[in-house]
Specification:
By secondary structure, the protein is α/β, with parallel strands linked by helices. It folds into two domains: 250 residues, Aldehyde Dehydrogenase, Chain A, domain 1; 213 residues, Aldehyde Dehydrogenase, Chain A, domain 2 (3-Layer(aba) Sandwich). Helix content is 39%, strand content 18%. The strands form six sheets. The protein has an eight-stranded mixed β-sheet with strand order 15-18-19-14-13-20-21-22, sandwiched between helices. The structure holds NADPH dihydro-nicotinamide-adenine-dinucleotide phosphate.
């Protein structure tokens, strides 16, 4: 579908999607249907089956059969790479279609989704290279009588549970790598944003992926998702979502087959700004770091920890930039922040904004729900005079709400940054290499950005301690998307 030339609007009728098992789209049939309303337009946009645990069992069975008969796991890395490269082409060809349905289900801006889907093409291409270079290790230091060999074998059936904030991106941060290494997949997208996960099934089949290697069950988390975590025949589970559900997943894995887990959960990430930073760049980065995806991002820079000497001046710069972010219809090419994706999330964010005011923080920007005539939108919001004990400083809000906290010394900056139960990501802005290196080593975070934020590429691991020094450029590539 080429939608780039026309002004986009929501569909007249919601589109029916099926779920995807053994290479086939399966329509809802007698099953209940989940009708998704666009959070930006208040009209029904997609309809998907509410799969049952029996459907999950069928999908796991298809994935197990495909794995056991080695129709994919037995291929050479070169053959797998060829399919992944074709899939990359398929995503590129259907980029506009994927972006359109993703915008409608998620409420995120079309320009942003295009960037995300384009990034997914790169992940498939990169994974294709990895498929050809995966190898084991050998041990020839055991004495003359012994020689050790370590091979890397696929684990089997991998479950992938994804959230609603980056439905296609988070999926594609996992699928091509899981496939590159020879595994089979059962994916369970969020019930709010399932369309693109099903479309990927069609793309993979057209690219030559054998039937049964990639399967999708649609449905609710507490039924299908929970059953997947408990399933005795799922060997590994990748889960991205809330810390609360992550705990349930760990418990379910322990109570079933001790499946291997990959978890990406919550964050309350610091943006540490020193007085010697390029303040213009840093203010762009801070505004982008909390504004991107309306702050519905596990690595959002939600806490601005800024050197006291420049705190007022810098907060003013960020306020000015955030006040210029255009919030509105996500199908509009110029929109930078779209709708809040779920009703529950909207309530949560507004609740935190009220709590921040009750607890005595100073609201310097936003704080309101924006009336666009339809949909749910929240203005970019900044609180100053935030105390580390306040809920808005401690808890993940997952919205466009920035908490500003000043510091006097480098040690104090590190202490405030580490005063959190999370340790997901962090950014530091300074021109002083000693400060940058000290902060990246002492602040506990799995992902660290220096003089940039929310930047990266398929070559970098996520969740491992991956540090990226932006030197302005990478960060600015991202920033241009949101701050003209
Ligand atoms: P959840 O953790 O409930 O949802 C994430 C995924 O898990 C969805 O696919 C969901 O399915 C599924 N799920 C829900 N319950 C279970 C379960 N018992 N077993 C297995 N899978 C399950 O997040 P919420 O949507 O409730 O969001 C709440 C908060 O979580 C947000 O405010 C934010 O703080 C955080 N969050 C973090 C994300 C991240 O990227 N790290 C992403 C999303 C949320 P379904 O949606 O169909 O119920």
């Amino acid at each position: 579908m080429d939608t780039s030339a026309t002004r986009l609007s929501p569909p007249e009728q919601p589109r029916d999607f099926g779920f995807f098992v053994d290479g086939q789209i399966i329509p809802a049939g007698e099953r209940e249907v989940f009708e998704r309303h666009s959070p930006a337009h208040d009209v029904p946009v997609t309809r998907l089956p509410k799969c049952t645990t029996n459907d999950l069992d069928s999908a796991v069975k298809a994935a197990r059969t495909a794995f056991s008969d080695r129709r994919w796991s037995g291929l050479s890395g070169a053959d797998r790479a060829a399919v992944l490269l074709k899939a990359a082409e398929g995503i590129r060809a259907r980029l506009e279609e994927i972006a359109y349905w993703e915008v409608l289900e998620s409420g995120k801006p079309i320009s942003q989704v295009r960037g995300e889907v384009g990034g997914c093409v790169g992940m498939f291409e990169y994974a294709a290279g990895l498929a050809r270079s995966l190898h084991g290790d050998s041990f020839n230091n055991l004495g003359d009588g012994m020689f050790g060999i370590m091979t890397r074998e696929p684990i089997g059936v991998v479950g992938i549970i994804t959230p609603w904030n980056f439905p296609f991106l988070i999926l594609c941060e996992r699928v091509p790598y899981v496939l590159a290494s020879g595994n089979s997949i059962v994916a369970k997208p969020s019930e709010f944003t399932s369309a693109s996960t099903v479309i990927l099934g069609e793309i993979l089949t057209e690219a030559g992926l054998p039937d049964g290697v990639y399967n999708v069950v649609t449905g609710t988390g507490p039924t299908v998702g929970q059953a997947m975590a408990e399933h005795m025949d799922v060997d590994m589970l990748s889960f991205t979502g809330s810390t609360r559900t992550g705990r349930a997943i760990v418990a379910a894995a322990g109570a079933s087959n001790f499946k291997k887990l990959g978890l990406e959960l919550g964050g309350k990430n610091p943006q540490i700004v020193f007085a010697d930073a390029d303040l213009e760049d840093a203010a762009d980065g801070v505004a982008f770091g909390i504004g991107f995806n309306g702050g519905q991002c596990c690595v959002s820079g939600a806490r601005l920890i800024v050197e006291a000497a420049i705190a007022d001046e810098f907060a003013q710069m960020v306020t000015e930039k955030m006040s210029r972010i255009s919030v509105g219809d996500p199908l509009d090419e110029s929109t930078q922040i779209g709708a809040i994706t779920t009703d529950a999330q909207n309530t949560t964010i507004m609740g935190y904004i009220a709590k921040g005011q009750e607890e005595g923080a100073e609201l310097v920007l936003g704080g309101d729900a924006l009336d666009m005539g339809r949909g749910q939108f929240i203005a970019p919001t900044i609180f100053k005079n935030v105390d580390a004990s306040m809920a808005i400083a401690r808890e993940e809000i997952f919205g466009p709400v920035l908490a500003v906290m000043p510091f006097e010394t480098l040690d104090e900056a590190i202490e405030i940054a580490n005063d959190t139960e999370y340790g997901l990501a962090a950014s530091v802005w300074t021109k002083n290499i000693d400060k940058a290196l000290t902060v990246t080593r002492r602040v506990q975070a799995g992902r660290f950005w220096v003089n940039t934020t929310l930047a990266g590429g398929p070559e970098l691991p996520i969740g491992a301690s991956s540090n990226l020094a932006g030197a302005g450029k990478l960060g600015q590539w991202a920033l241009k998307n949101i701050l003209k």
